[in-house]
């Protein structure tokens, strides 16, 4: 969704289209709910009248879709109904890295440190909590996890 960029574009250009683009992204989050967990998939097929997993590159919820609540937190958009499916998913211990939204098959791998950081930032923002500890970024941290950890820390900055 590129949320903070849309706000910046709107502020700079005063063009209302950027608000419309943001709204279309949150609307898509409302429609794109699949499987027992009502989560969005990493890949979906979008047409004028529906969102489907039929024909998509993958039918999993995983690292790609996991970033959606992070974008909401960066935008300071705390819509409970958009975040609730993610919080429900994160209630598992340990949190799996992915789930196939058609079959319900859950990954045997646990969520990586970047996914864990998104979870921590989202839950903290939703609860108004500022006392959280993020996973460490070090030489062994993969690119995506490091990026998600740093962006999650940024989402905790109150403006």
Can you offer a commentary on this structure?
The chain is mainly α and about 160 residues long. Helices cover about 50% and strands about 5% of the residues. A hairpin with a 4-residue loop joins β1 and β2. α4 packs parallel to α7 and α5 packs across α6. The radius of gyration is 16 Å and the shape is globular.
What order do the strands of the largest sheet run in, or round the barrel if closed? Answer: 1-2
Distance between the termini: 20 Å
Percent helix, as a range, is 40-55%
Element string (H = helix, E = strand): HHEEEHHHEHH
The number of helical runs is 7
List low-pLDDT spans: none
What is the beta-strand fraction? 5-15%
Tell me about the biggest sheet? 2 strands, antiparallel
Please state the overall shape, judged from the principal axes of the Cα atoms.
globular
Q: Would you count the extended β strands for me? A: 4
Structural class by helix and strand composition: mainly alpha
Mean pLDDT: 92
Q: What is the rounded Rg? A: 16 Å
